[in-house]
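S.,

Sequence below, as promised.
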Amino acid sequence: MINPRMLMQMKQFLSNPQQMIQQMNIPDEFKNNPSGLIQKLMDEGKLSQDQYNQAVSDANMIRKIFKM
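The prediction came back faster than expected:
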């Protein structure tokens, strides 16, 4: 089941995606390279494989909810 907090964050993101992206402070070199950013976070130990897998699972669930 999807986390209610995540749904609220998704709703906020969809209402103003540019603002949310700016708040993430993503380095310029990764703004058009999400795979590179994921790899960097994993290399630095800031994101585990389990966390990544959970995020992918949650994203797929959100896609189904919004039928994207």
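The mean pLDDT is 83.

Coffee later?
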